[in-house]
Amino acid sequence: MKKFLPLVALALVPVGQASPLQAQASARQVAGQTKPSPLAPGEIVAAAPKADWIAIAPADLLVMDLVPDAQGAERRVVIQLIPPPFSTGWTGNIRKLAAAHWWDGLSINRVQDNYVVQWGDGNAEDAAKAKPLPAGLQIMGEGDYVVSARECPETEKGCKGAPLPLAAPQPGLARDPYAEEAGFFKGWPIAGDGRSDWPVHCYGMVGVGRDLSPNTGSGAELYVVIGHAPRHLDRNIALVGRVIEGIEHLSSLPRGTAGLGFYEKPEQRTGIMSIRLGQEVPGLPVYEYLSTDSKSFALYADARANRRDAFFIRPAGGADICNVPVPVRRASGSQ
Amino acid sequence: MKKFLPLVALALVPVGQASPLQAQASARQVAGQTKPSPLAPGEIVAAAPKADWIAIAPADLLVMDLVPDAQGAERRVVIQLIPPPFSTGWTGNIRKLAAAHWWDGLSINRVQDNYVVQWGDGNAEDAAKAKPLPAGLQIMGEGDYVVSARECPETEKGCKGAPLPLAAPQPGLARDPYAEEAGFFKGWPIAGDGRSDWPVHCYGMVGVGRDLSPNTGSGAELYVVIGHAPRHLDRNIALVGRVIEGIEHLSSLPRGTAGLGFYEKPEQRTGIMSIRLGQEVPGLPVYEYLSTDSKSFALYADARANRRDAFFIRPAGGADICNVPVPVRRASGSQ
To answer: Which of A219, A199, A188, A198 has its CA nearest to residue A146?
Structure first.
């Protein structure tokens, strides 16, 4: 059987010429003069020292348990919520909804191939049957889809009228058709135009379903990207997190056959047993992400863009931001 | 229920400034001075005149029938083979394999989330059990992963020492971290560097599994992309086609739990009943693709990159090539 072999990169190509954005990034990050690694991306990640990993607080995790599958196996999906300054109104609402156990008994209502899986109240558009929302949810404005420098609190590093400091460890990230710059902020893929920054719709990212503008969605209706990154949605809809474990339970669901991938009949929808914040889940493992300000991440990003292991003939010499997924794992010794 | 509404684009933004590549492309295509359309991408496609659609010959189709699903429903996957000058040695082999009914009884052996579904002989690495290949299969060299201008026959348009004429209807396509230019050739997404051109690993593209270099694969082991476009594979492995119908039968399969998404046990693999060339399939519908040299396609690509319908607040102003999938459909009146 012909296989794709484990990815062993002999990254003998220099990191590359620095664009103005890269030079700016280099001034802000540890790995500005990183020598390429001879290891594969996965090996670099596995070899990264403990200090390069940042634990995720349970309060930043959303744990969705679907009804068991046909064989009775549990199906748990773990989502990491995006940190401030991004989408704080929506993540605040999501925390309220999770604390209220609001999603319990609701369902996966839409699975559209090469696009999204979406869940929430299947009766939301029927006033007689729609599930009442908890009190106290915020309503956000469209300006909140992005973070503008001038809105940053003065205590937020790099916010004195300047854009957020994005780690841009790969010069190729600057050739982005959707934004002037793309990089990473505290472990998240972010794009920007020099005045504002916003999260990027990569595979596995979770966003907030909404109606037409000016509606911005409360967070009660959520979706995850299960195909090629739909970057045209950036800045048009709120991104609130990413699936860090269990995405296969969503991406392998049968596709809906009604328009846009909605299910024709309610009985076709997969049920949600519960969605809880991490601190409410007994025995939840500890998860950690590879710091995007670390040398390990810079080496990893370089290896993603320049694959020189035996399997590869020609390293690409660049990568798009969604092809440099931030490593997230269970902390060792954790369940 | 919050829904993504059908995409209605009010494309009031001009197509955009022409880069040198775009100017070059404009000289070669019909739609050089296209005015943006007020319609959504899907509406533009639906409204495209019959003359803009090009029928696909049955001989260019590979029809894979998987064993029926748990409810007894048939699962047919239709693949369009890429035309010359790309990957001709491999497509030639695939035609021989299909004509010999070689894949009958074989299986889907690997499903890796956000990456590929792969199929072929599950025993290929066991000399005692491996299924013998038909005689007469060609062996290709690594140089065949790309098409170099100087290798084009003189009768091939645009080949007199010049790269293939790529339709580049969207200036944003030039901001590609993987190639100097990206565009479309006879309905296929192609990247190039001014000297060579090669097919691009977008969602749904089908490629040839291989061992380590210098092995290039025969075509007996195939895979399809089911996640974010793994562009780092471009030029490193042969691309031979794309799934034009039925991809959900592959993308929704359970993910393999052994390394790289292979299935742990043979009984977990979904069986392949048959793979046939189109002319051997009674009653196969006629399929057609939207000509990438047509004005309709240029309007569609512009609408993909500049979404101005009521749902969108801010058009992206650009798109990556894999976010402009070439429309393919059953011809009207066809089954």
So the answer is: A198
Local structure of residue B167 (DSSP, 8 states)? B
CB contact (8 A) between residue A236 and residue B313: yes
Contacts of B47 (CB under 8 A, 6+ apart): B39, B296
For CA atoms A310, A312, A318, A321, give the dihedral sign. negative
Whole-number Å distance between alpha carbons of A171 and A174? 6
Cα-Cα-Cα-Cα torsion A109, A111, A117, A123, nearest 10 degrees, comes to: -10
Task: Dump the DSSP string for A252-281.
Answer: TSPPP-SGGGB-SSGGGSEEEEEEEEGGGS
Structure tokens at A192: 């920007």
Q: For residues B26 and B173, give the distance between their C-alpha atoms in angstroms, rounded to a whole number.
A: 13
Distance CA B243, CA A111 (A): 19
Q: Does A178 touch chain B (CB under 8 A)?
A: yes
Interatomic CA distance for residues A97 and A47, integer angstroms: 39
- Helix, strand, coil shares of chain B, percent, nearest 5, are 20, 20, 55
B116 touches A2 (CB < 8 A): no
Cα A327–chain centre separation: 11
Which of B13, B199, B246 lies closest to B90 in space, CA to CA?
A: B199
Report how many Cβ contacts below 8 Å link chain A to chain B. Answer: 203
For residue A228, the chain B residues in CB contact (below 8 A) are 202-203, 227-229, 322-323
Name the residue with higher pLDDT: A152 or A93: A93
Q: DSSP label at B232?
A: G
**Residues A169/A35, Cβ–Cβ less than 8 Å:** no
Average pLDDT, chain B: 87
Q: How many CB atoms lie within 10 A of CB A138?
A: 14
Between the CA atoms of A102, A103, A109 and A112, what dihedral angle is there, to the nearest 10 degrees?
120
Distance between CA atoms of A71 and B304, rounded to whole angstroms? 41
Taking CA–CA distances from A131, the nearest residue in chain B reads: B1
Q: Following CA atoms B211, B213, B214, B217 in sequence, which dihedral angle do they give, to the nearest 10 degrees?
A: 30
In this complex, the residue of B5, B172, B247 whose CB is nearest that of residue A177 is: B172
Stronger pLDDT, B29 or A276, i.e. the higher one? A276
Contacts of B203 in chain A (CB under 8 A): 114, 227-228
The 10s digit of each residue's pLDDT in A74-94 is 999 999 999 999 999 999 999
Q: Which of B305, B181, B322 is nearest to A203 (CA)?
A: B322
Q: What is the number of residues in chain B?
A: 335
CA distance A2 to A4: 7
> To the nearest whole angstrom, how far is the Cα of A108 from the nearest Cα of chain B?
11
HSE, side-chain direction, 13 A CA sphere, residue B278: 16
Query: For the stretch B153-189, what's the b/e string if a residue is b when 16 or more beta carbons lie within 10 angstroms of its beta carbon?
Result: eeeeeebeeebbbbbbbbbbbbbbbbbebbbbbbbbb
Distance, CA of A218 to CA of B4 (rounded, Å):
15
Residues B57-83: what's their mean pLDDT? 98
> For a pLDDT cut of 90, what percent of chain A falls above it?
74
Query: Cβ of B313 and A142 within 8 Å?
Result: yes
What was the ipTM of the complex prediction? 0.88
Per-residue pLDDT tens digits for B148-184:
865 556 666 655 555 688 888 888 888 999 999 899 9
Q: How far is CA B214 from the centre of its chain?
A: 24
Query: H or E element: which one contains A181?
Result: strand A181-185
Q: Give the amino acid at B22.
A: Q
Residue A190: both structure tokens together: 């972010």
Residue A13 three-state SS: coil
Portion 183-222 of B in contact with A at CB < 8 A: 202-204, 209-213, 215, 217, 220-221
